[in-house]
Amino acid sequence: MKPKIFVARAVFPEVLERLAQHFDVESNQEDRIFTADELIAKVQGKAGLFSTPSEPVSAALFAANPQLKAVCNMAVGYNNIDVAAATKAGVQATNTPDVLNETTADFGWALLMATARRVTESEHWLRAGHWKKWSYDSFTGPDVHGSTLGIIGMGRIGQAIARRSLGFDMNVLYHNRSQLAPELEARANNAKYVGKEELLRTADHVILVLPYSKESHHTIKAADLALMKPQATLINLARGGIVDDAALIAALRDKKIAAAGLDVFENEPAFNPDFLGLSNVVLTPHIASASTPTRLAMANCAADNLIAALSGKTPPNLLNR
Ligand code: DGY
């Protein structure tokens, strides 16, 4: 008999077919985000759970499902999974690193360019019929080329963002839990390791790509925003809780910083409606990894992990320590 698994959200049909060769698959046909209790009920009797960043996979889920052996997240970020509780419950937890680095870095640039060069703001204005003449000061803003880029979180995605900055003649500063090896700094456009305060004071554009955890909660709050240059931009590609959204809204409203580009939000898919009243923020719905090939690679990577875990092998991207 094939082991039973639950696929928590809609996924590529070819990946579901692949999973079905190994498992007795039940999947979320409605593609709605289940409540914690609904998810616990769906996982009853299942050996594996294929999850996404939208499902909180908690100690309560493990306690209610002692038969569960593996939870495989289709994301590099895994703050939705209580990995310590998984380890205690003997459940293998996995993520999908690497396959999304370059696509996510591309999107970091898209968001930075759109934010600094006011792409979406000016497009909304044009669509609303306001364009009557060319003006010397229409939608002017900071330059990207030749400026200083500050990257907070210099993992593989941060390094991929830094590599791209070479073509823009940028100076790169980074802040990270630890300093990179000299050869990695050299490949990352000679990025210079600095303290968070120096980075925030000096950078023209700040990109957040660090993992979310209790320690990184509100890495950027009012006091940090106050350090930034008034013409600076802030880009968040990581997780919503890394920025205090209320403090950011105040800083954008009071022009303490020029603009922000946000792909992630505290409590997403809900977000603070005050963002909608601000013209100096670019808002996207958590799509940094959303190229078709990369999303397919992520789904296959999660499937590889689940297949390995439930056939007694060590999954390639095991998170339990
Ligand atoms: C990740 O992989 O963590 C992304 O945020 C999901 O696209």
TrEMBL record:
Q: Which residues form the D-isomer specific 2-hydroxyacid dehydrogenase catalytic domain?
A: 6-320
Q: Which residues form the D-isomer specific 2-hydroxyacid dehydrogenase NAD-binding domain?
A: 110-288
Q: Please provide the record's keywords in A-Z order.
A: Oxidoreductase
Does the keyword section mention Oxidoreductase? yes
- In terms of superkingdom, the source organism counts as Bacteria
- Gene3D superfamilies linked to this entry: NAD(P)-binding Rossmann-like Domain
Keyword Oxidoreductase: yes or no? yes
Q: Which InterPro entries does this entry report, sorted A to Z?
A: D-isomer_2-hydroxyacid_DH, D-isomer_2_OHA_DH_cat_dom, D-isomer_DH_CS1, D-isomer_DH_NAD-bd, NAD(P)-bd_dom_sf
Matches recorded under PANTHER family: 2-HYDROXYACID DEHYDROGENASE-RELATED, GLYOXYLATE_HYDROXYPYRUVATE REDUCTASE B
Q: So what family is this one in?
A: Belongs to the D-isomer specific 2-hydroxyacid dehydrogenase family.
* Protein's name according to its UniProt entry: 2-hydroxyacid dehydrogenase
Originating organism: Herbaspirillum hiltneri N3
Taxonomic classification: Bacteria, Pseudomonadati, Pseudomonadota, Betaproteobacteria, Burkholderiales
